[in-house]
Design goal:
With about 150 residues, the protein is α+β, with helices and mostly antiparallel strands. The chain is built from three helices and nine strands; from the N terminus they run E-H-E-E-E-H-E-E-E-E-H-E. The protein has helices at about 20-35, 70-80, 130-140; strands at about 5-10, 40-50, 60, 70, 90, 100, 105-110, 110-120, 145-150. Helix 1 (about 20-35) packs antiparallel against helix 3.
Length: about 150
């Protein structure tokens, strides 16, 4: 059986809210989902963690040369950092060898990096609207983005 996960993360991969702001935002997410049967996980991570789109990933583009980055490179990178997270997002892209930031890659379905995440499992709805994202950002005290994964 497959799962869909709708995650909300801060736009800054290093930023974390305090506990009351994270809890307040998770409560707002629950109100927006409006389904008591849905699992919502709220996580504060010690290291930067990837918030991947799973099977939705179609392509990764290089912000330097515009070339396509092999998804096998991405998979190997995730495998290397799955247990401990990332201490830095600096990377040398395989297509042109340029120094880059992982959060600057052009993911076709969005992926992200975060030290805080609210993940809604099988939300039974589409992505959050722009207006809902503004409400979530106001509750959190920091701009947010969303990542939709199929795993």
């Amino acid at each position: 059986m497959s799962d869909d996960v709708l995650s909300v993360i801060p736009t800054d991969p290093l930023w974390q809210p305090d506990r009351p702001a994270g809890d307040r935002t998770a409560a707002l997410v629950a109100d927006l989902i409006d389904d008591d049967e849905v699992d919502i996980d709220v996580s504060w991570h010690e290291a930067i963690t990837v918030v991947d789109c799973g099977e939705n990933l179609e392509r990764i583009g290089c912000p330097h040369c515009g070339g396509s980055i092999d998804t096998a490179w991405w998979g190997d990178l995730l495998e290397t950092h799955v247990a401990d997270g990332f201490t830095t997002l600096a990377a040398k892209v395989p297509c042109c060898g340029a120094d880059s930031s992982l959060d600057g890659l052009d993911f076709d379905w969005p992926c992200g990096f975060a030290r805080f995440e609210i993940a809604v499992w099988n939300p039974g709805r589409g992505s959050f609207t722009d207006e809902e994202l503004v409400r979530l950002a106001n509750a959190l005290g920091h701009p947010v983005r969303q990542v939709r994964a199929h795993i």
